[in-house]
Amino acid sequence: MAENAFGKWLKKNRKALGFSQAELAEFLKTYQVKISHWETGEDRPAEETVRELEELFEPRRA
């Protein structure tokens, strides 16, 4: 995703599920500051974490 589109996607979907940054961090077993950095574009999560987020936000329909 280009120019912090990932951060916008993350924040929008996190809020849609009603998660705070701290709650999402706990779910992913990471730190709240990492979530903040991902949302602002200061950092990017590992591809494995991106896949985890995609599964959380966009579950496959059976």
Structure description:
The protein has 62 residues and is an all-alpha fold. It has a single domain, classed as Orthogonal Bundle (434 Repressor (Amino-terminal Domain)). It has helices spanning 5-16, 21-28, 32-40, 47-57. The relative contact order is 0.18. The mean pLDDT is 92.
What characteristics describe this protein?
434 Repressor (Amino-terminal Domain)
Layout of helices and strands, plus pairs?
Elements: H1 5-16, H2 21-28, H3 32-40, H4 47-57
Helix pairs in contact: 1-3, 2-3
User: What is the second-level CATH architecture?
Assistant: Orthogonal Bundle
Percentage beta strand: under 5%
- Termini separation: 27 Å
Number of helices: 4
- Estimated radius of gyration: 11 Å
Q: What percentage of residues falls in helices of 4 or more residues?
A: 55-70%
Based on secondary structure, the structural category is mainly alpha
Count of separate structural domains: 1
Shape: globular
The name of the CATH superfamily reads lambda repressor-like DNA-binding domains
The SSE order reads HHHH
Major sheet: none
CATH class: Mainly Alpha
Number of strands: 0
Low-confidence stretches: none
Mean pLDDT level: 92
**CATH topology (level 3) name:** 434 Repressor (Amino-terminal Domain)
